[in-house]
Amino acid sequence: MILIGTMNLTRTRERGDFYCPTCSSSQTYRLRARRPFLTLYFIPTVPVGGAEVFVDCDGCRDNWDVSVLELDRAHHEAQQEDQFRDEAMRSAVLVVLADGTTSENEIATLQRIAMRLLQREADREELGHLCSVAVENKILAKNYVLTVSRRWSPEQRARALQAMFLAATADDEMGEPQMKLLSEMRDVLEMSPNEYESAIEAALSWDEV
């Protein structure tokens, strides 16, 4: 009986240093090439496809496309900050929607939050779109923040909490759903009591900066 099959062979082409997005620091890497081979009696004989080239981080062991070698730290951190700003803004919108109603005060507050977080104006149409997407997809603030906050830094978590606090207190009286949601955010964001209280206090001075 002739035993024929396939197997992947992976070889290291070169080594070097790069900025790893997962580690958020400089790490050593291996540039590796993986290619399928036809085997005869478990011995690789003939290549049957093109080589897949990828970057293997020695720190976290994640694999990346070779384009990651062109990524510099400043550019990556700027992209992460832009992503955070959008996520924090959506979190504030979801807090407003927690009680099922949206008032004029809440819309005005979201526009103030947008100026602080996004550093630009957000008109009613943009806010309406964010609300519609959240309602249509039944996105809950707690679940959303729990998912996206895993990649936030402690400073970003504090800023996001401040935005959510201002959204929750836009009206004179905070609704019970929003009050409950804010109390849960301390655990969701993995903040200590002091960090939580400091962030809330800092939110009160947003308009002064």
UniProtKB/TrEMBL annotation:
<protein>
    <submittedName>
        <fullName>Tellurite resistance protein TerB</fullName>
    </submittedName>
</protein>
<dbReference type="Pfam" id="PF05099">
    <property type="entry name" value="TerB"/>
</dbReference>
<feature type="domain" description="Co-chaperone DjlA N-terminal">
    <location>
        <begin position="89"/>
        <end position="199"/>
    </location>
</feature>
<dbReference type="InterPro" id="IPR029024">
    <property type="entry name" value="TerB-like"/>
</dbReference>
<dbReference type="InterPro" id="IPR007791">
    <property type="entry name" value="DjlA_N"/>
</dbReference>
